[in-house]
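Retro notes, item 3 of 5
We never archived the inputs for the GMT complex last cycle. Fixing that now. Sequence and ligand:
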Amino acid sequence: MKIGITCYPTYGGSGVVATELGLELAQRGHEIHFISYAQPIRLRGEEPNIHYHEVEVSRYPLFDYPPYDLALATRMAEVSQLYDLDLLHVHYAIPHSVSALLARQMLANGPRGRRLPFVTTLHGTDITLVGLDRSYLPITRYSINQSDGVTAISNYLRDRTLRVFDVKKEIEVIYNSVNCDVYRRCKNSAERRAEYAPNGEKLLVHLSNFRPVKRVTDVIEIFDRVRKKVPSKLLLIGDGPDRSVAEWLAVQKGIHEDVLFLGKQDQVEEKLGVADILLMPSELESFGLAALEAMACECVPIATRTGGVPEVIEHGTSGYLADVGDVDTMARYAVELLNDESALQAMGKAARAVAKARFCSSKIVPQYEDFYRRIVERSS
Ligand code: GMT
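Structure as it came back at the time:
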């Protein structure tokens, strides 16, 4: 098939999911066209069957707010016509599904009068935070209802969308996936760990966009408690608005030398593949891709019981869950595990087994292919 994919190309779970999906689909012989304002971060630009089309937004002086959604709709229609795409798949509803809707209408009214179906995948904050803003809610609901197919990344997100948005459309759940060949325990991990933990300390990691919903200060609070009991280091991967407050807190607590802020990183599997525990104390996660990536790397996730996270992590088997803000309990779970190497390793292996059995790309990508086929058949 020839598929156009639009996502936020910078850091963020939805962009990662969209890009990994495009790469997997291309490997399976599909022709993939990414349409966005920048090349998605996990693309190198040399992959076979992958094309990237940049959306240029004119900066006319009158435009205090350059209309990206209109430029995107135009580019979607152009690319679809030029390359004869079978469908568009947009990740994150706002504004991508509105642009896809416009592109579909433009093509339907164009010289060839063709119908271009589009699929919207809901990821989380497009529904739970941004989408609930009154200035976005009606148009988001409209574009979801107008989509030819809608998927959500967890049952939690599907149910919440149906309930809160009063959407009439059927929403199919297709879980996020992980490439289990790429995300795995690192061989020679002892040597690699020495880079961050030269004296054999335990290694904890957090990976996010440092937005308030991630509660990065809870990560520091948990680590502070763990470090008092177990010699350890904390790797913080990513960047965002709450980085400086986390840095300040680490300094306040006098632990900043053991907290390593790595900033945005490309090959996160290299870090997850040597770490012992991932901390994800978020206020809300519709899925929690970082936890899944850690699980595939045998790095045990300790997270909050919120949103779709319990669909990914089974408490006590493939990780631990606690209430939002309960940093004491999360620290206690971490200390218990770090003090029991065989339990830590066993849980790491159990976590990978779950990732492989339920969320491996080789299982999830065919679900998207099947979904696309049904949508295209229904639209022709
Ligand atoms: O979490 C964010 O702030 C980023 C956001 C995104 O769209 O990039 O993440 C959402 O989508 C991810 C990929 O599907 C999910 O793993 C995250 O749980 C979800 N974030 C929230 O629900 C807060």
